[in-house]
């Protein structure tokens, strides 16, 4: 069996100009399997795993899953980090395409709209593309022409999360939201659901709706300012656990523990502990290891001519009582996949 290779690459901006983007219009589907997915003439698969960054616990777990799964399957995989820069990732795509570095791409985009043209160029050149974490080209999940999609932050899941928050707070009140970066479909899905389920409800007074960089430190600063301006805040929600931690620290520093209900979308080890002790009211956990493990497995299966689903919704992998929502009543049934 071929020896596995895993590398962490940060491919610089190519010196030569590469082909311009093609249009990003595409349609999606949630069922069936992809056609023309197998590799050519027994050619061994070489996967380029394009990832936004590697500097938080979620994406770090993604990388671990990619490397371990590739080793288990005996395939070559290289991790290509964009350091959270959309332009860098675009150049990584175009350089890899021009050099024919990989014959299969696993893509977690920094900016899904901007990535669309490069992805379509790669597919037109015969590269097999599998999408993970968030959709591309205006699609919430599957994009036509790719092999498939695995993710757990769809619009439907965010809609359910905010509906649950509204249900838990029938009297409404002042509410604040902190999400990830702009250009990110996970952020877009959260904001769209928040608008439909919270902003449209007259019981709620939205006093803060800000985007951040997923870090605890930045979340603390944002939350501290929000709480100083709104000491009567009732609800604070964040769509990543490391940001939720920053919010909890700010609530504690303001002496408002027990007065502000905190909601988490992420469910890492810290968040599940916070749910258990009542610091966080509810969490919808994410599965970063399963996300990439399943993505690599399905990509390799498709390469080998096996039929795979177009969409794997990771919330269906949550099997604890009352899934997908963790509360004090069921948190003991769940083990977090990342710190």
Report the CATH topology name of the largest domain. Answer: Rossmann fold
Strands ordered across the widest β-sheet:
1-3-2-4-5-6-12
Helicity, in percent?
A: 25-40%
What's the CATH class label of the largest domain?
Alpha Beta
Number of domains: 2
Please give the oligomerization state of what you see: single chain
Q: State the distance separating the first and last CA atoms.
A: 34 Å
- The low-confidence parts are 1-36
Mean pLDDT: 90
Can you count the helices? 9
Assign the structural class, choosing from mainly alpha, mainly beta, alpha/beta, alpha+beta, or little secondary structure.
Answer: alpha/beta
Family: Belongs to the bacterial solute-binding protein 2 family.
GO molecular function: carbohydrate binding
Keywords: Signal
Signal peptide: 1-25
């Amino acid at each position: 069996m071929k020896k596995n290779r895993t590398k962490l690459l940060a491919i610089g901006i190519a010196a030569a100009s590469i082909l311009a983007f093609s249009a990003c219009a595409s349609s999606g589907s949630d069922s069936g399997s992809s056609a023309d997915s197998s590799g050519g003439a027994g050619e061994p698969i070489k996967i380029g795993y394009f990832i936004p960054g590697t500097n938080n616990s979620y994406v770090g777990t993604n990388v671990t899953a990619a490397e371990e799964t590739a080793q288990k399957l005996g395939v070559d995989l290289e991790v290509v980090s964009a350091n959270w820069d959309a332009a860098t990732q675009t150049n990584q795509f175009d350089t890899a395409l021009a050099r024919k570095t990989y014959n299969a791409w696993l893509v977690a985009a920094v900016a899904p709209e901007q990535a669309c043209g490069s992805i379509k160029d790669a597919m037109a050149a015969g590269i097999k593309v599998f999408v993970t974490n968030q959709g591309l080209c205006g699609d919430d999940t599957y994009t036509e022409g790719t092999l498939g999609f695995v993710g757990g932050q769809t619009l439907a899941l965010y809609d359910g999360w905010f509906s649950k928050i509204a249900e838990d707070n029938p009297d409404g009140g002042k509410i604040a939201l902190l999400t990830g970066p702009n250009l990110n479909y996970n952020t877009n899905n959260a904001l769209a659901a928040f608008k439909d389920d919270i902003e449209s409800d007259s019981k709620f007074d939205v006093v803060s709706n800000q985007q951040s960089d997923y870090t605890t430190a930045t979340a603390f600063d944002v939350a501290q300012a929000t709480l100083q301006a709104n000491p009567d805040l009732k609800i604070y929600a964040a769509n990543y656990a490391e940001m939720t931690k920053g919010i909890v620290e700010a609530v504690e520093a303001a002496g408002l523990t027990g007065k502000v209900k905190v909601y988490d979308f992420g469910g890492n080890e810290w968040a599940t502990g916070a749910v258990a002790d009542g610091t966080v009211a509810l969490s919808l956990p994410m599965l970063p290891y399963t996300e990439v493990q399943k993505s690599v497995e399905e990509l390799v299966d498709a390469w080998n001519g096996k039929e795979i689903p177009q969409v794997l919704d990771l919330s269906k992998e949550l099997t604890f009582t009352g899934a997908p929502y963790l509360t004090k009543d069921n948190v003991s049934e769940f083990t977090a996949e990342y710190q």
